[in-house]
Amino acid sequence: MTTTESSSRVGEDVSPAQALNAAIAGFMSDFKDFSHGVNAKLQKQDDRMNKLDRKTMMNARPALAAAAAEDAPHQKAFAAYLRSGDDDGLRGLELEGKALNTSVAADGGYLVDPQTAATIQSTLSSTASIRSIANVVNVDATSYDVLVDHSELGAGWATETSAVTETDTPQIERISIPLHELSALPKASQRLLDDSAFDIEGWLAGRIADKFARSEANAFVSGDGVDKPTGMLTYPTVDNDTWTWGNIGYVPSGTAGGITRADPIVDLVYALGAEYRSNGTFVMNSKTAGTVRKLKDNDGRFVWVDGLAVGEPARLMGYRVLIAEDMPDIDDDAMAIAFGDFSAGYTVAERPDLRVLRDPFSAKPHVLFYATKRVGGAVSDFAAIKLLKFAVS
Predict the structure, then answer these.
(1) What total of structural domains would you count in the chain?
(2) Which of 66-75 are b and which e, b meaning 16 or more Cβ less than 10 Å from the residue's Cβ?
(3) Is the per-residue pLDDT at 161 higher than 80?
């Protein structure tokens, strides 16, 4: 019976108020039945959607896992090559175009996987070397050219009616920095390589980084430029009072083979142009630093101040000090201290790729890993670096 029928029948026998109450009660009963039906349909639809969502998520998981492991194939293939010499995976990556220009072994080895290469590069950048304060550039060519304008172009104030003086022709110097091959040759036994618990990538990265760091640090200071970078101390030096481009100016300490007062350090700082001085850094070895840190100014204060926080470099006259062990000791006529803006004064050019060639034959029962990269270095601004010469004049 519907609500309308019930209310019409009741209305004939009862009062209007009772009829209204009966009509309301019938309506509420019908609405309750309707709500139960709607809720049941919604529940079925929710169950169906939840099943679809779970199915979608299950189907999506392998794809996500594959995407997360997209960078792993090269690393796994490279590890297989290091352990057993199996280069099928690396060749496959090359053919499928999934790797970074993977080169075959006949051309000098395979590219190190990105994670290992990043570990090596991070170690090189954090070592106590000129690299850490120099201008470092990545190139794809065999050399890198630096263009330096060291002329005074001339400038002045002008009015609408006065003649304007023509500026001088700029003097552009081109400095070419050739890239040289830097190599390392760590070795390991095949038994060690067969041990799955042995971290071959971490071991190789550590050995390569250590050899590269020591070789680079020495070359950037005293390299002769023959099949290696040109070190800053191998350029011609002249007294800073007569300095000319192409030479590095020096300031004499006033004492042969020694230093007894802080005045030469002050002279060295102010021998550098103001445009470079704000970014100046001292470079010396530990033995020289031990001598310099004992110096006092005319008021009896130490000119050397240790860093106030862990990892903060020491300060000499307010400037950072880089301890580079390849700098010479204090001796007669030694250029044992350098001061300058090395981000302008010295440039390190390198190719970003690092290659490794596995050699299981030359040192049996050990396996050699011939790692190579190309790097060069040279002074790029002769006005940005000054030296302290431990001599009377």
Answers:
(1) 2
(2) eeeeeeebbb
(3) no
Question: Token digits for 290?
Answer: 């031990």
User: Over the chain, what is the mean pLDDT?
Assistant: 81
93, 101 in Cβ contact below 8 A? no
Question: Does residue 281 sit in helix, strand or coil?
Answer: strand
Element (H, E) at 135: strand 135-138
Res 46 pLDDT > 80: no
User: Residue 215's CB: how many other CB atoms inside 10 A?
Assistant: 17
Q: Which of 110, 133, 162 is the last residue of a domain?
A: 110
Can you give the CATH number for the domain in which 383 is found? 3.30.2320
Q: How many residues comprise the chain? A: 393
φ/ψ of 138, rounded to 5, equals -100, 135
Is residue 333 domain-resident? yes
- Cα separation, 20 vs 261, whole angstroms: 112
Residues 98 and 237 in one domain: no
* 285: containing domain: 232-349+379-389
What pTM was estimated for this model as a whole? 0.73
DSSP sequence for 58-87 = HHHHHHHHHHHTTTHHHHHHHHHHHHH---
Q: Do the Cβ atoms of 109 and 117 come closer than 8 Å?
A: no
Chain segment 291-324, per-residue pLDDT in tens: 999 998 888 888 898 876 666 777 999 999 999 9
CA distance 241 to 232: 19
Which residue has 């496959």 as its token pair? 92
Which of 64, 82, 110 is where one domain is finished? 110
| Residue 13, token pair as written in the block | 């026998």
In a domain, 268, yes or no: yes
Instruction: Give the three-state DSSP class for 354.
Output: coil
- List the structure tokens of 45: 């639809």
Of 95, 89, 59, 49, nearest to 72 by C-alpha is 89
- The mean pLDDT of 346-351, rounded to a whole number, is 94
